[in-house]
UniProtKB/TrEMBL annotation:
Record-level Gene Ontology MF annotations: aminopeptidase activity
Record SUPFAM superfamilies: DmpA/ArgJ-like
Superkingdom classification of source: Bacteria
Matching InterPro entries: ArgJ-like_dom_sf (IPR016117), Peptidase_S58_DmpA (IPR005321), TAT_signal (IPR006311)
Species name: Polyangium spumosum
Stated family: Belongs to the peptidase S58 family.
Pfam families (alphabetical): Peptidase_S58 (PF03576)
Protein name: S58 family peptidase
Length: 408
């Protein structure tokens, strides 16, 4: 993730492993200055909400407290931060990127049960008509800003055509799942600024383990409750009596008004009134992606998708008229082999699904808070600035409302 010293210096910032062969050359040919992964960064000053001593809910998190705790799920980012000063449409400043969720090793050939829910529909999530018809996920999931949705679809399909030569021959051409939120407070939206090579790099960088959060990937240009927002993630483990399955959530948070923000029930947004974006800034929209290794049907996953909306509400969101609040949940616990006539798999018993509902709510609430806790102050077009949530203020605010943070 870029730190504040990287902003506005004509750089494209990308956290990644070193690329093999043609991918790096393709990026350079596209005019991108790609920083190698080993370039030193300023010391990290941001901390996740749980690391601050604020534990959300009752269920335990997974090892990394991330969607990647679900076996087989990987996440990758491509981040572009370039230029400063007045907006020059088509040239910058640039504050954009793409985040990819790889649902398994081979989601095209091993489709996964999935369902989605629209809490408020002023946004776009492509490919969902096919998902609704089949109840199956067949592509990775990509998150970006609004004006780049077509560019990311192009790059995603280019990668799939190259990776799966049967597409368009013996197999249908898919519509990739791509979601968007609006980034024009910080970003040259007219310029778009993403290419097939950027999408490819995000895919190649996808890894398990800890996930970069905040102003990274698709979340680079986003605000949350009028603080800097972006990508956040969290997970929950179910008890052994429920199979010890994991539920993970990843959000691209770009929603809410300052006064609405609540952290573990405390009205933090009402207590921090400084550092507001300029008057008239209306942050809106959130993408919420959930995953589990519990073997569930599309109907059950649809129930979990709706419960993620409850977790969003616990952070203060009201899903405003202009919001694109789009939610999707998939399971890696059932795989449907393309072309196979039958699939034998256990199925979760609905009588015990309430604990999974609780996990989805808690993980979503914490993922939204992590998006703000890990995001750093970012300046974009015209000097517009999205200020980071001041973590040092939280102990006093929580104490004021009778919720002291344990000393760590």
């Amino acid at each position: 993730m870029a730190d504040e010293s990287d902003l506005g210096k004509g750089r494209t910032v990308s956290r990644r492993v070193l690329l093999a062969g043609g991918a790096l050359a393709a990026l350079e040919a596209a005019g991108c200055n790609v920083l190698p992964a080993e370039v030193p960064r300023a010391p990290a000053v941001r901390r996740r909400i749980r690391d601050l001593g604020i534990a959300i809910g009752a269920l335990p998190p997974g090892r990394h407290n991330a969607i990647t705790d679900v076996p087989g799920v990987r996440v990758g980012h491509l981040t572009r931060i370039e230029g400063e000063g007045p907006l020059v449409p088509g040239r910058g400043p640039i504050r954009t990127g793409v985040t990819v969720i790889m649902p398994g090793d081979d989601v095209w050939r091993d489709n996964l049960p999935a369902a989605r829910f629209t809490l408020n529909g002023n946004g776009e999530l492509t490919g969902v008509t096919t998902l609704d018809r089949r109840g199956l996920l067949e592509t990775p999931i990509f998150l970006t800003d609004t004006s780049n949705i077509g560019r990311v679809m192009d790059g995603a399909l280019a990668w799939m055509l190259e990776t799966y030569p049967e597409i368009g021959d013996t197999a249908p051409v898919p519509t990739p799942i791509v979601g968007e939120t609006w980034a024009a407070f910080l970003h040259d939206a007219e310029g778009r600024h993403l290419t097939d090579a950027h999408v490819r790099e995000a895919i190649l960088s996808a890894r398990g383990g800890p996930v970069e959060e905040g102003a990274v990937g698709g979340g680079t240009g986003m605000l949350c409750y009028e603080f800097k927002g972006g990508i956040g993630t969290a997970s929950r483990r179910l008890p052994a009596s429920m199979g010890s399955y994991t539920l993970g959530v990843l959000v691209q948070a770009n929603h809410g008004r300052r006064h609405q923000l609540r952290i573990d029930g405390v009205p933090v947004g009402r207590e921090i009134t400084e550092g507001m974006p300029f008057e008239g800034r209306k942050t809106k929209s959130i993408l919420i992606i959930g995953a589990t290794d519990a073997p569930m049907t599309p109907v059950q996953l649809g129930r979990l998708a709706k419960r993620m909306a409850l977790g969003l509400g616990r952070t203060g969101a009201v899903s405003m008229h202009g919001s694109g609040d789009l939610l999707l949940f998939f399971s890696t616990g059932v795989r449907v082999r393309r072309g196979a006539a039958l699939t034998a798999a256990p199925v979760w018993n609905d009588e015990h699904i309430s604990v999974a509902h609780e996990a989805a709510v808690e993980a979503t609430e914490e993922a939204v808070l992590n998006a703000m806790a890990m995001a750093r102050t970012t300046t974009g077009i015209h000097g517009n600035t999205a200020y980071a949530l001041p973590l040092d203020r939280l102990p006093d605010i929580m104490r004021k409302y009778g919720r002291p943070i344990p000393t760590r």
